[in-house]
Amino acid sequence: MDIVLRTALMYLVVLILLRITTRRIMRSATPLDMVVIFFFGGIATPPILGDDRSITGALLAACTLAGLHTMLSHLKRVWPVVGMITEGNPVVVFANGDWDRTALRRMRVDPRDVMAEMRQQGISRIDDVQSAIVEHSGAITVVPKR
Amino acid sequence: MVSDPEGSDIEIEANQGFESVWSRAQFLLQVVIGAVVCAGLLGMFGNGWMSTSTRHFSGMPLAVTYQRLMRANAPADLIVAITGRLPGDVLELGVGSELLDRASIGSTRPGAAAISATAKGETFTFRLGPDHAGHITLKLSVRRPGPVGMTLLANGERLELPLFVYP
């Protein structure tokens, strides 16, 4: 029982910490983002298993993680607010030639990150961009001018 | 071939047959995962309501609380509670070799006054306090999985404690 509860607690703690720390990990992980993942991975495991080195304990922890993740994925579909809390919303950081400095600061996104995405899409001038959006997945969508 | 035979190397057609089977298998696996987590919460894999058992010695005021379902390579406690006044100043607790073949007793709380080992098992001698009451905790560390017929002896009286160890 204790493993299930400890796993659930650590899952929620790491989820909240990742949510408030960074959202770019899945798409464009920089060393700054990767260090968070490596450390969280290492820090979260010992409190869950402790001295328990059994296969059953590891299996139970893995099943709890999988079960929680599946449950949250379903809940997110039923109640969008769950998705907003766990993943966030898309945020426009550049539109009509102006940077939204407040949004950039809140998202902790640098204009260089947006420009890197522009270059990957073959856009070389900022004047050719209609808007740039930081998606809930962490990806940066660049919409070119028509 | 992953995609439907209707597709080509470039154009991929969804393999509806496979997707349908996979969807059912995925749902079944999710149900199994849910069942495993519920069983874990109830203590079917140790450390919970279903795994904790308390047994009493018939001729002595001693209650033994232990995990009848435990995990190998995971710590577990065996607690002997003195529920009434015991005759004498000493309590001798013997653990049979059936358990010691699979597990080790790392420590006891309070510490034993004396420990003696024979082919039949280990005997821990505890000096009782002035009120002749309290708890004795044996810290178990089980190494090998499988069913175990553990025997506990208290001042010569035998108590059978069957348990199962998960891998």
From TrEMBL, chain A:
Highest taxon in the source lineage: Bacteria
Domain (YetF C-terminal) ranges: 82-145
UniProt KW keywords: Cell membrane, Membrane, Transmembrane, Transmembrane helix
Subcellular localization(s) per the UniProt record: Cell membrane
Chain segments annotated as transmembrane: 6-22, 29-49, 55-75
UniProt keyword Transmembrane, yes or no: yes
Major localization listed first in the record, in broad terms: membrane
UniProt membrane topology term: Multi-pass membrane protein
Signal peptide residues on this chain, from the entry's feature table: none
Family annotation (Gene3D superfamilies): bsu07140 like domains
UniProt entry tagged with the keyword Ribonucleoprotein: no
InterPro entries per the UniProt record, alphabetical: DUF421, UPF0702_alpha/beta_dom_sf
Family recorded in the similarity comment: Belongs to the UPF0702 family.
Protein name in the entry: YetF C-terminal domain-containing protein
Species, as recorded: Methylobacterium oryzae
Automatic annotation (TrEMBL), chain B:
Transmembrane segments: 27-50
Superkingdom, natural source: Bacteria
Keyword Membrane annotated: yes
Keyword terms, alphabetized: Membrane, Transmembrane, Transmembrane helix
Protein name listed in UniProt: Uncharacterized protein
Origin species: Methylobacterium oryzae
